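User: Please run a holo structure prediction.
Assistant: Happy to. Please share the sequence and the ligand.
User: Here you go; the ligand is tryptophan.
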Amino acid sequence: MRQRVLSGMRPSGKLHLGHLHGVLHNWRNMQHDYDCFFFVADWHALTTNYENPWSISGNIGEMVMDWIACGIDPEKSTLFVQSDIKEHAELHLLLSMITPVSWLERNPTYKEQQQQLKEMDLATYGFLGYPVLQAADIIMYKAHKVPVGVDQLPHVELTREITRRFNYLYGEVFPVPEALLAETPKLPGLDGRKMSKSYGNSIFLSDSDEDIRSKIATMVTDIERPRKSDPGDPEKRCVAFQLHKLYLSAERLKEIEEDCKAAKLGCVACKKELAEALVQGLAEVHERRLALSANPQKIREILLEGAEKARKVAGSTISQVRDAIWIQRAT
Ligand code: TRP
């Protein structure tokens, strides 16, 4: 039997190249070797966006379109929305009984996010319990592997602790899941900081060819190279060069590096070439996305079917959980 993989994403807006190279390529490749469940974590989005829930529901379809356009295949993987499977709420409740508050309070992302999102009141019960809900998501499907970015490692670690505690108290119901870190290439945004929607430095998967061209034209290059006649050092100093690495052939990359160092190739021409390579590289994603957005009903059907499959697994897990807990109590 193939091992099971589970991962999720909050529907917090349009996806960008950072998601594509950091997460989606990883998910796509895992589909061949694992039984994959990928879901939209809309309840998790509610922990920080409870004041405007409508912004969440609007993003769900768009995000799933992005997934599929990037090669996540609903024929191979189970795609669903968290809140369609009420069992997640029950398992979350039961896990909350055995999770010490101190484990949650010492979770580094908890304090960090509270500080970063100062304008929101995050001193809520739900936000503290974010990792408990995540643990429920993961073990519900008895996942062996959880492909995530480094920022999620503390959450997966907590999931492992909660799982061990459950198994110790009620019997070995769950495999202890493992995080699977992808080798993600460093992907800077247009300004050189990490690509992030909140920094306004992203290239979105839904951007048109023209958007891509004008965005790349503004991208920071080697700041210590004000004139074309100055020799550059792309590997050390040029932000755009990190993107070149993903979209140009190895030979062309080498030529560009040499010509930049020899002050033969200017940044304007170089970025034009990058923009065209990106437009080409994303053409297939764009085409699929366009076809999907012309048929929103299709996405609804995919998510409905996915929910049905997920519910079967979740239903069976939850009855094992109920048995395990109540039987223990009766003896
Ligand atoms: N916390 C994850 C994020 O912000 C989303 C998430 C929720 C998740 N449940 C999960 C990821 C279970 C992996 C497994 O990206």
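The mean pLDDT is 94.
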